[in-house]
Every structure is written in structure tokens, then in C-alpha cells.
């Protein structure tokens, strides 16, 4: 039952993210816009490129969706509402997100198109930039909770949320999450102005619909991870726990989309330089500070 | 668009009955990058309809990884000559030139009017000249806003794309009070763009051009050249026009120049105080040769024509984009793909005005 409720919640969240994205793109708030867009995509011919790597081409959109769902499986919406409360939950999130790279590389290679190929390789470069900025802040969060259980991580924030306890980690994780979900300004693999859609360029119809659904679910999953790791998860007064989780997840998703809307796409070389020269030293400083604080004020 | 070499390379790696080959043997026929690394080069077309590039521009890039190894560029909508072989009446010629470049119709209409007037020995009234300038400057603002919208699309800056597009549409239809109301909006836009660090880092150092005789308009002025047809225009001089320039010659300087020019154009429009669309010139059955030059939003355009009994029988047009397109092969060489396309966008090319 939990699994069904969480999956439906993820899909509902993904729909609301799509509404917000369409609102930002067109300037008009239309609650039905994603539904119409989905109907249009499903009704359109699903064209296959001339010489695709068929297995990669067909698998990639589904794999992206599965990766996002897998990562969400260990993230609790309330103390009892979690698909799988694994002892290695925090680590599992990171492991599941690794398949986003695999999905995008498969989409890039499988399409047999230069735009998609360059998009796929761009994302590989992007992963090299952001991956440590996902792992190291999660490590600091687990240090405070003294557990990799995601429910324990939420419980460890009862006195002070991690956004205040380790703000550097929050900023790094938030930015890296945007890069994982290839949201602007980190939308290098699907850049319209550079690559006419990049890894998405050769997808049409139902395949494109699944690809886009996977991306929206990924955004919700990463917002849920940010909520669990830094915003006290389900904690909050008056409202039931699941409602607080939902509010926080949607707020983080909106912040991610709004942030990208107001910024131009980052240059690939700059992304790598900033992540390695600034991000990783900051992540190490964060680990050190959290380590000291755990000893003084757990 | 297909990556035949890439997949062919993959097919070559099938094992089966193939003997072992060392990496040296596998890569011996591949082209070499500047650093000596053997890579499979891919030839990719960008255009003639590509988001973030002007419609009608066909850019064919040979990519060495994600770096540009070779560039070929051509316009698929321009280059057809300025004049039909049979010649045109004065009215027909004005309409023909106006329709030639949909990105700057007023500028070309005015250029045609001026050249015809010069050929027919006519001098328009001073107030008419001033008001024509106001129309031209309004088109300059709209054109620069259109360029900003394209820059927004090219760089994934959705906020800029949306706002600049909306303002461009407003500007194209604006009367005097409305366009003066836009002043504060344009000032706010300018301040916002100059203060956006990611935009600065995106454009800073991209597509640096050095002063040369091939440069025109904002591209030349961003490289520190005093190159503006308005400097020598008496009507502009009477309006206390002063040219803006910068020294760096990169994409960010070109952005700055265009932002400054929008403010400057607003000030000129305010000084003039009204618009007068360039109307058809009544040349009667006049004959003669005429020359006119004019600063279009993309740079100086020059028109020489010969009028015989009221018909234009010869015309020669010289435009900024014709020169700027020639810069691309050297300018894009070894640039990362994203930077290369931003560089192309920053030149604000109009494939329609290519004459050769």
C-alpha cells in the first residue's frame, strides 16, 4: 500500500513540477498544460532514427524513470511512509542516481545522432563535476545522524534542521541536485540552443513522454532527498507529517526551477572548474566543521 | 547529422573473426587533434532552422570531440543579388529592398529612399530627416531586443528570452509615449544583465575579434573601432550623437555595446519627438547615380545605384553580415561547441542581408 501511495504521490508531484515549468516557459498558469502536452505526445507518431542502437534507444527513457523511482524508494514522506527503509538508505540514493548517467549515455549513443551523442558525453563530464558534491554532503549528513537510515537522518534533525546545522552542505547538495536532474543552468545534455534538445533530440511520441516523465520524477526525487537530508523531512507543526513532506518537496522543486529560469547555462569548462576548485574544498570544509560540531553539539 | 563514423567505429570493434589490433593500428587512419590525439571527427549541420541561430544560416561544423575543427557557413536565404535583371521602378525598388531583410526592413527602406534621392538630386526636409532617424532608431532598439531574445534562447536564459521577446513586440508597435515608457524597463533590463555573473562568465572571452577592415557596427565598436555611419551624418550630429565603444572585442563587449545603444536610441527618439516612416520617393523620370550609407542595427550598409528615366537599372549593396560571416572559420576554430554557437549568436548575423 505504501508503495502505491508513494508512487502516486511522485507522479502527482511530477505533474505539478511540469505545471510550474510550463508556467515559467509561457508565462501562463494552466493546470491542464502538462495533461494536454502528454496527450499530444502520446498521439504523435513515435519516430525511430534510421540506424539506432535499438536496445539502448528503447531502454534509456525507461531506465531514467526507474533510476528516479529507485532513489525515491528509500526516502520517507512520514515515519511510516517509506517504500524500503534500507540500512544503507543514504548510500542507496547515491547508487540509484548513478543510473541517470547510464540512461543519458544510452540515449546519446543509441540515437545515432550527433546532437544526442554530444549531449550524452556532456553529461558524463557533468557527472565528473557534481558527483563528489552529492556524496560528500550526504556523508556529513550521515555523520550527524550516525546512521545511513533515511528515517534516522530525519530524526537527527529534531533539534535543528541540517540546513542550519550544515548550510554549506545544503548549498552544495542543492546545486549538485540541479546538475543531476540536468535542470538549467546545468542543462548541458539537453541544451536547446546548442544541441536542439541533445539526448532528447531524436525522441518523439511515447518515448519522449516517458523521458520527460522520468526527468520530472527525478526532480521530485531530488527535492525529496533535499527535504529528508536538510529540511527535517516530515517535521513541522499542526499539519500531518506527509503534508509537511509534500509542502517542502514542492517548495524545493519550485526553487530549483526558478533558480534555473533566471540564469544562463553554465559553460562546461566552468562547471568542472568551479566544482573541483571550489565545490570539493567547500565539501571538505563542511565535513570538518560537521565533524567538530558532532563532537561538541550533536 | 548521422554519426556514421562513430557507429562504424563501434562496428569495427566487433571481435568474432577479427584478429587483435593494437590501439595504434585502430586509430592510425583517424584525423589528429591539435594535441595529437586521434579522434573520430563528426560533421554536424546547425541550421538553416536551428534554435539559437538566425533562421537561414547554415553552419556546418566538423567536431573533434566537442571542439570545432572546421567551419563552413553560408546563407540559404540571401546572396541572390540586390536587383532583378530587368530593373525596377523607384517604388518597386524601395519595396524590394525593404522585403530583402525581414530583420531590418525600415533600415533598408530608408537606405533605398536615400540612394534614390541622391540619384535624383533631391534633398528631403530637415524635419523629415530627423523623424526618419527616429523610426530607424526604434528599429534598432527592437532589433537589439530580438538579438537579446535569441541570446537568451541560445544560452538557455529563459527569463531573458521571454522578457526580451515581449519587449521587442511592444517596441515594434510603440508610438512615442509608449516607447519612452519603455525607457525604465530597458534600463532595468540592462542593469540586470550586466549584474548576472553567469552571463558575464558565459560571454567573457568568447569570440574575441581584433580590429580589422572586415568589422562593422556593434561588432567593430566592441573591438574599439570608431566605425559608425552615424558619425558623419549631419542630422545625427545636430542631435548630439556620440558613438559608444569598448575595447575587449568579446561577446560580453558586444552585449554591452547593444545595451548602451538601446539607451542611446531612446535618447535620440526623445530628442526628435516624432516618427516619420520613409515614404516612396517621387523621382519622376530622373536619371543619375546615387550613393547612400546608413547604420543598420548590424552595421553600416552602403547602396550604390544607377537611375535611368526613373528606373533603377543597377544597384550594388554592401552589408555587415557579408563581412562578418567570413570571420567565422577562424573565430570558431578549436572553440568548444557551446562557446562557438554563442560566438555566432553574439555577432548578430542576418543571413537575409548577405549579398555575395
- pLDDT < 50 runs, ≥5 residues of chain B: 1-15
CATH fold label of the largest domain in chain B = Cytochrome-c3 Hydrogenase, chain B
Could you state the oligomeric state of the chains shown?
Answer: heterodimer
The CATH class name of the largest domain in chain B reads Mainly Alpha
Biggest chain pair contact, residues each?
Answer: A-B, 35 and 34 residues
Our Rg estimate of chain A from Cα atoms comes to 19 Å
Separation of the first and last Cα atoms of chain A: 35 Å
Main sheet properties of chain A: none
Description:
The complex is a heterodimer of chains A (298) and B (356). Chain A is mostly helical and 298 residues long. Chain A has helices at 2-26, 33-43, 54-73, 89-110, 114-145, 150-155, 162-165, 167-180, 192-195, 205-230, 241-261, 268-296. Chain A has 12 helices and no strands. In chain A, α1 (2-26) runs parallel beside α11, α8 packs antiparallel against α12 (268-296) and α10 (205-230) packs across α11 (241-261). The longest helix of chain A has 32 residues, at 114-145. Chain A is globular and about 60 Å long. Chain B has 13 helices and 7 strands. In chain B, β5 and β6 form a beta hairpin. Classes of the chains: A mainly alpha (298), B alpha+beta (356). Chain A binds chain B through residues 24-25, 27, 50-51, 53, 112-115, 117-118, 121-122, 184-185, 187-188, 191-196, 260-270, and chain B through 1-3, 6-7, 42, 44, 50-52, 63, 65-66, 152-160, 162, 196, 198-199, 201-202, 336-339, 341, 345.
Amino acid at each position: 500500500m505504501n508503495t502505491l501511495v508513494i508512487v502516486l504521490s511522485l507522479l502527482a508531484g511530477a505533474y505539478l513540477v511540469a505545471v510550474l515549468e510550463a508556467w515559467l516557459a509561457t508565462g501562463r498558469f494552466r493546470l491542464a498544460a502538462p495533461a494536454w502536452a502528454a496527450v499530444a505526445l502520446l498521439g504523435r507518431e513515435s519516430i525511430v532514427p534510421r540506424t539506432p542502437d535499438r536496445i539502448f534507444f528503447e531502454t534509456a527513457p525507461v531506465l531514467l524513470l526507474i533510476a528516479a523511482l529507485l532513489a525515491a524508494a528509500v526516502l520517507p514522506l512520514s515515519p511510516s511512509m517509506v517504500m524500503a527503509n534500507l540500512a544503507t538508505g543514504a548510500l542507496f540514493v547515491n547508487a540509484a542516481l548513478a543510473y541517470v548517467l547510464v540512461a543519458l549515455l544510452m540515449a546519446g549513443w543509441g540515437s545515432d545522432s550527433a546532437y544526442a551523442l554530444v549531449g550524452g558525453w556532456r553529461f558524463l563530464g557533468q557527472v565528473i563535476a557534481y558527483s563528489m558534491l552529492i556524496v560528500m554532503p550526504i556523508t556529513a549528513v550521515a555523520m550527524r545522524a550516525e546512521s545511513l537510515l533515511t528515517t534516522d537522518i530525519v530524526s537527527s534533525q529534531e533539534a535543528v534542521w541540517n540546513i542550519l546545522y550544515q548550510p554549506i552542505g545544503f548549498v552544495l547538495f542543492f546545486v549538485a541536485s540541479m546538475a543531476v536532474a540536468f535542470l538549467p543552468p546545468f542543462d548541458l545534455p539537453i541544451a536547446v540552443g546548442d544541441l536542439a534538445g541533445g539526448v532528447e533530440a531524436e525522441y518523439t511520441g511515447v518515448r519522449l513522454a516517458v523521458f520527460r516523465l522520468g526527468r520530472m520524477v527525478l526532480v521530485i526525487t531530488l527535492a525529496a532527498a533535499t527535504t529528508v537530508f536538510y529540511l527535517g523531512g516530515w517535521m513541522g507543526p499542526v499539519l500531518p507529517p506527509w503534508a509537511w513532506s509534500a509542502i517542502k518537496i514542492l517548495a524545493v522543486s519550485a526553487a530549483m526551477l526558478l533558480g534555473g529560469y533566471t540564469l544562463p547555462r553554465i559553460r562546461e569548462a566552468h562547471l568542472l572548474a568551479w566544482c573541483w576548485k571550489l565545490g570539493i574544498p567547500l565539501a571538505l570544509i563542511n565535513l570538518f566543521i560537521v565533524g567538530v560540531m558532532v563532537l561538541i553539539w550533536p | 547529422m548521422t554519426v556514421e563514423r562513430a557507429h562504424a567505429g563501434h562496428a569495427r570493434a566487433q571481435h568474432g573473426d577479427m584478429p587483435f589490433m593494437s590501439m595504434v593500428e585502430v586509430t592510425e587512419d583517424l584525423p589528429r587533434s591539435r594535441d595529437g590525439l586521434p579522434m573520430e571527427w563528426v560533421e554536424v549541420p546547425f541550421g538553416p532552422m536551428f534554435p539559437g541561430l538566425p533562421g537561414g544560416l547554415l553552419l556546418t561544423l566538423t567536431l573533434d570531440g566537442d571542439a570545432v575543427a572546421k567551419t563552413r557557413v553560408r546563407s540559404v536565404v540571401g546572396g541572390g543579388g540586390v536587383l532583378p535583371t530587368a530593373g525596377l521602378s523607384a517604388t518597386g525598388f524601395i519595396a524590394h529592398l525593404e522585403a530583402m531583410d525581414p530583420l531590418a526592413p525600415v533600415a533598408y527602406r530608408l537606405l533605398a529612399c536615400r540612394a534614390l534621392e541622391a540619384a535624383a538630386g533631391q534633398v528631403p526636409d530637415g524635419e523629415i530627416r530627423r523623424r526618419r532617424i527616429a523610426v530607424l532608431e526604434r528599429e534598432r532598439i527592437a532589433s537589439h531586443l530580438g538579438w537579446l531574445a535569441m541570446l537568451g534562447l541560445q544560452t538557455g536564459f529563459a527569463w531573458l528570452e521571454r522578457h526580451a521577446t515581449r519587449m521587442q513586440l511592444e517596441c515594434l508597435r510603440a508610438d512615442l509615449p509608449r516607447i519612452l515608457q519603455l525607457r525604465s524597463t530597458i534600463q532595468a533590463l540592462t542593469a540586470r544583465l550586466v549584474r548576472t555573473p553567469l552571463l558575464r562568465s558565459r560571454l567573457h572571452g568568447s569570440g574575441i575579434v581584433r580590429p580589422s577592415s572586415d568589422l562593422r557596427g556593434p561588432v567593430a565598436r566592441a573591438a574599439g573601432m570608431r566605425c559608425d555611419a552615424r558619425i558623419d551624418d549631419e542630422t545625427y550630429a545636430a542631435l548630439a550623437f556620440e558613438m559608444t565603444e569598448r575595447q575587449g572585442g568579446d561577446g560580453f563587449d558586444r552585449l554591452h555595446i547593444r545595451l548602451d545603444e538601446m539607451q542611446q536610441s531612446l535618447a535620440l527618439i526623445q530628442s526628435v519627438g516624432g516618427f516619420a516612416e520613409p515614404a516612396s520617393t517621387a523621382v519622376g523620370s530622373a536619371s543619375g547615380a546615387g550613393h547612400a550609407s546608413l547604420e543598420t542595427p548590424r552595421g553600416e550598409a552602403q547602396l550604390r545605384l544607377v537611375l535611368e528615366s526613373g528606373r533603377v537599372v543597377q544597384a550594388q549593396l554592401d552589408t555587415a553580415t557579408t563581412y562578418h560571416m567570413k570571420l567565422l572559420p577562424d573565430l570558431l576554430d578549436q572553440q568548444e561547441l557551446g562557446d562557438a554557437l554563442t560566438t555566432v549568436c553574439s555577432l548578430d548575423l542576418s543571413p537575409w542581408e548577405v549579398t555575395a
